[in-house]
Structures are given as structure tokens and as C-alpha cells.
Amino acid sequence: MAFTAAPAGATSTSVMAQRETPEWTPGGSTLGEWPIAAGTAVTMKCWTQGPNVDGGKKWFYVSSHAYPFPAGYVPANSVANQAQVGLC
To answer: In this prediction, what percent of the chain has a pLDDT beyond 90?
Structure first.
């Protein structure tokens, strides 16, 4: 099986695969802010480990591209088209 790279200049935007309310810490309390809806574009800032949610312990710190621009930690399995980011 051959893998091909995306064309030069192409970008893949990370989006929420399911609705999540960002948290202060992975598995901690929610920020009391607005949830990020499924399909909303997000910027992935970094990743860390936390409690096992949706079959994985990886969590991303994301910020939403949609008003009111909530940000915080969400389970990694909730993000589609994941970008490569460093450890938080």
C-alpha cells in the first residue's frame, strides 16, 4: 500500500468530531464556557495524557474558531484531522 502526501500548499483543518465542552485540566471540571460543536474548526495547541475517555488517554488543548471561541482540553478521539503538536 502506498501513501501519498497532500499536494503542496494543501492544508487539513482540525475539526471537532463530536461536541465537547473544554476542560481546565484533562478529566477535570469544565470551564463553564460554551461547548464546541461537532464540525467546528479548532486549532490544536498541544497534547497531554489524562483519564481514559472514549478509548484513549490522550487529550488535546484546542481553541475554537467559532464565537465565543472556547478553549481548553478535549479528549483526542473528539478531534478529526489531527495536526502534529508537541507535548503541553
So the answer is: 72
